[in-house]
């Protein structure tokens, strides 16, 4: 790895499937020998896509500027089943054999446009009364969560039962897993998220990101940094 530029910068990475967001921090610390490394928003392990890595103190101190960016995702929902986590991280449970028409799908998606309210899922890192919700959920507990206001634009990419493919542009704090579950409820079919990819975060795009698997001691990180 070549020497890093002074003050360091921003690195766009395409996170690999089944890798934690912290795995990127750990990897970059190892490659750069720099401790001050952060990111502008996590992705669940099963998800892939754009992560904005902030390398160096000057950039980690600006993380709040990045976290407020709106984001775009593409995702696939599987109808007919639900899971406790609303994604592939928990066992799926049969819900319904109902096969909705495309007209029914389009009608439901009209409810996921503009300003809406959403209840954060129990399996999330959100804190309530100082406790991470997922820690309570793992104990089999479910507590009251206040609804949050979000803004979304949901576009149907394709529908071939049991799969719905969507592109969702959303404001800070949106849980795509919850949208998947809520769509399943409104269709009366049940649904959970089986793929999720972040394609944009503010002015930054996945097409400009370096795949996580390409990051090793031979990569020229300095040439990839954005100032």
Total strands: the figure is: 14
Number of helices: 6
Strand-residue proportion: 25-35%
| Alpha carbon gyration radius | 19 Å
Helix content: 10-25%
CATH class of the largest domain: Alpha Beta
CATH topology of the largest domain: Pseudouridine synthase
How is this structure best described in words?
The structure is a single chain. By secondary structure, the protein is an alpha+beta fold. It has 2 domains: 9-68 and 203-224, Pseudouridine synthase; 71-201, Pseudouridine synthase, CATH 3.30.2350. The protein is 21% helix and 34% strand. The protein is built from 6 helices and 14 strands. Strands 1, 2, 3, 4, 7, 10, 11, 12, 13 and 14 form a 10-stranded mixed β-sheet that branches. The chain has a two-stranded antiparallel sheet with strand order 5-6. The radius of gyration is 19 Å and the shape is globular. The model has no long low-confidence stretch (mean pLDDT 92).
What's the SSE blueprint?
Blueprint: E1 9-15, H1 21-32, E2 37-39, E3 48-55, H2 57-60, H3 63-67, E4 71-79, E5 81-82, E6 93-94, H4 102-109, E7 113-118, E8 127-128, E9 131-132, H5 133-138, E10 148-160, E11 163-170, H6 176-187, E12 191-201, E13 204-205, E14 210-211
Parallel strand pairs: 1-14, 3-12
Antiparallel strand pairs: 1-3, 2-3, 4-11, 4-12, 5-6, 7-10, 8-9, 10-11, 12-13
